[in-house]
Every structure is written in structure tokens, then in C-alpha cells.
TrEMBL record:
Oligomeric and partner information: Homotetramer.
Location of the region described as Disordered in the Swiss-Prot/TrEMBL record: 118-149
Keyword terms of this UniProt record: Biotin, Disulfide bond, Glycoprotein, Secreted, Signal
PROSITE patterns linked: AVIDIN_2 (PS51326)
Keyword NAD: no
The keyword Nucleotide-binding is annotated on this UniProt entry: no
Protein family (similarity comment): Belongs to the avidin/streptavidin family.
Organism: Streptomyces gilvifuscus
Protein name: Streptavidin
Length: 149
């Protein structure tokens, strides 16, 4: 299988990615949390796994600025794609927001996402938002505040 296609994390954020034969990754990201309204471009790289039981390493970045909003932040994910009967991307993210030099120490948050081909139910996403405390984009919001995909 290929990493190209639609992916959803535990809170319902949606990304659509295309991997090219040279390892380039491009696509779009719609966040289900935070101040990021609308669709954002993403760009990244992947490297084909040489050992069948190992995952495919990949990473991508989203700058949270589009024609509708500028959240003055960037998130980068780094992880692995697995296809062992259950396709998933397990990734760690770093969210860095604009900050004064004196506050640099608190400008970056870290967390993890698991992306699957199926979106979570509303109940699953709400539960994850309640327990996560922070998402890969700024202020977590309730599922009711998110525009349906």
C-alpha cells in the first residue's frame, strides 16, 4: 500500500497526502482543533523501508497561515507509516508558536498523533480532546466548535 490518500488523527484532523516516486510528500491539512480555520498546505519527505517488518519513515510540516487566518505557528510531524494489516501513521509532533526571545522556552509543545484511514467518531474525538490537553495545533476546542468535514 502507499501512504498517499486521506488520513485522520484521533481528534478528527484530516490530511490528504500524495507521495511521489522520489520521496516527496505534498498535500493539505485541516485541523480539528485550535485557531487554524480552513485548509493548509503541507510538505514533507518519506523514505522507503528496506526491511519488510519496519515502517516507512516520513515527516511533514504545516505553517498555520492561509488566506483566512495566520496563527503565527508551525507544526512538524516525524514518524512512521505501517501497513501490517492495519494501516497507520504514528508520529510525534512539535508545535512552535511565535514568541518573544524571553519566552522561547515555552514556545514549543510536543505530542503524538496516530493517523488512520478512518475518521474517529464524534464521541472518540471529544474524549481525546478532553484528555489530550494540547493538540498539534494551538488551543484545543470541543468537537462542536469544529466545522464538519
Amino acid at each position: 500500500m502507499s501512504i498517499s490518500g486521506d488520513w485522520y488523527n484521533e481528534i478528527g484532523s484530516h490530511m490528504r497526502i500524495t507521495a511521489d516516486p522520489t520521496g516527496g510528500v505534498r498535500g493539505t491539512y485541516v485541523s480539528a482543533a485550535g485557531h487554524a480555520v480552513g485548509t493548509y498546505p503541507l510538505v514533507g519527505r518519506c523514505e522507503a523501508a528496506t526491511v519488510p517488518e519496519h515502517g516507512t519513515p516520513l515527516g511533514w510540516t504545516v505553517a498555520w497561515r492561509n488566506g483566512r487566518t495566520d496563527a503565527e505557528s508551525v507544526t512538524s510531524w516525524s514518524g512512521q507509516y505501517y501497513d501490517d494489516g492495519e494501516e497507520r501513521i504514528c508520529a510525534t509532533w512539535l508545535l512552535t508558536a511565535s514568541a518573544a526571545a524571553a519566552n522561547t522556552w515555552e514556545a514549543t509543545a510536543v505530542g503524538q498523533d496516530v493517523f488512520t484511514r478512518e475518521p474517529p467518531s464524534r464521541e472518540q474525538a471529544e474524549k481525546r480532546l478532553r484528555h489530550a490537553g494540547m493538540s498539534s495545533h494551538s488551543r484545543p476546542v470541543s468537537v462542536e466548535e469544529v466545522t464538519p468535514m
